[in-house]
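Archive transcription. Copying these from loose printouts into the bound notebook so they stop getting lost. Printout 1 of 2:
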Amino acid sequence: MRKKIIVGLDIGGSKIRAVLWDGKKVLAAREAKTPKNLGGFKKILRKLFGGHSKIGIAVPGRIKGAVFVSATNMPYIRNFNFAEFFGGAKVNPHTKKFGVGVKVDHDARCFARAEHRDKRTTLFLTLGTGIGRAISKDGKILKIKSFEYPARWEKKYKEIRDSRNDDELAIFLAKKLKGIIETYKTEKVIIGGGVAARENFSDKLQKTLGLPVKKSKLGKNSVAIGAAMLFR
């Protein structure tokens, strides 16, 4: 039973969330504040990992294979290799076997993986410490490398987000996302993260975008579940 359980890890700029996923449902979930330094980051990873044999990881920045290259909100990250970090973890203390299955993807793509339900072209947005973007088309998640970099307008997004003027934020996002929506012929939008949970924000964004906007069905576990789903 234990071998079938996958750890899904959602690494965010302010919080790290972990779920234990059995392929159908979340068995348990934990959350911790994102550390301010590399030593603290490694400590939290070990604590949340729990010695299982498979771990899927969602990160808010650039990736190359199992390497977390960099992230704007985590300046201490520079080419952090998750496979090497978890590779020495003991799977079974009795057999002394080593090695852990590790898969890594961008957080917005993990969000999309967990939340997409049909073949309509969909824009997925994670609206939290930063803003993540992903696209699904014909039931598949597109790997758009440019989305791993922060948007040029992310600083302004944070300013408006922190002011809690959601009407202004909805108008701002509609203007900045217009190019993506037109390029990929987007048919609907799904949003997650702290901003998405604000009262009536999805309705306001729907009005400014002129497209159906829905909130995440899986809530705060969605990105971590999408990370665990990398092993499907």
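Printout 2 of 2:
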Amino acid sequence: MMVATFLVFIMHLGFATLEAGLCRSKNTVNILFKNTAIVAIGLLTYAVIGFNLMYPGEFSIPGIFGFSGFGIGVDPENMMVAGKDGVGIYTYWTDFIFQAMFAATAATIVSGAVAERVKLHSFLIFSIIYVGLVYPWVGSWKWGKGWLDAMGFYDFAGSTLVHSVGGWASLAAVMLLGPRLGKYVGNTIKPIMGHSMPLATIGAFLLWLGWFGFNGGSVLSADPALVSFVFVTTCLAAAAGMFGAISLSWMIQKKPDLSMTLNGVLAGLVGITAGADVVSVMSAVVIGFIAGLLVVVSVMIFDRLRLDDPVGALSVHLVCGIWGTLAVGIFSAAHSFTTQLIGVAAYGAVCFPAAFVIFYLLKVTLGIRVDAEDEMKGLDISEHGMEAYAGFEIKNV
């Protein structure tokens, strides 16, 4: 569990570098700052309220504020938990830190969707509220033995509980923020290229690496057979997602697109996350491949709808998160498609309005978008007063 926690922690570096690489250099400092702050926000808000709100009654700790009195007078030896099916043990503290990393991920997803034009302070306030209240509340429906768990809804590691929760919030934010300047001119969709594909590629590989902890740690036991099986389904789905995205994007654009390829990997990973432990190896390949196709199609659809998403967060996390959750009901005989559909609808019905209300209130009070001059100048200078690449100049040769 501790190793899995470290791997999930590394995923935040992956999100930061992927987002920075796919956006323009003038916004790099802002992107790195947001992703760094989100980790701290996730840890602290989850400690203060989120953990107990998400797991009510667990560990016999009363109330929803704080976790185990913040360790005051607690004997660590009495905070041991048997692993799933009684295989191995882990501690209360390990479970907290592992789940806190998941909580921070939900806000990180939103960061990519709103990149290059969101006001920093408004985004941070949103992250505190969403991670501290909304994420743990809806998470308790399944992982806290709530009503969806009682219905038989299944989401192994968070295709819906983490990725779609972040995806629904991203959709609300993008709708309220509007597109970046120059993205849509008349009926023309103008691509805004990222400044560093090497950085984006490093980020994608870090995320792929971290996903072994994301899914493997969600086994919640030291069962080598099940953990290794989850590793295999996770990795094959990622590979199939990449192949699906490459195939379709190459057919459409007549050339291979690296950004689509990277998002294809992530699409496969998000798609398999809900059922990595209950679908067959072949099913994992099919799920990943379809996710890779979906990410390409949905990116084009969102562009036509003028929903500007610089990194493809809506396509990867929302669309493929929904697909992965529904796929459990298709490829696992033990789970119902109808129940999975109810779960997807329930999360959408709460997370989208909740995020929309939070962002709308911020919009009419503090504002959520930087002004046009600051956006053109870049958020590194306007929000932070510094450059990511001071002293360097990029020229076309």
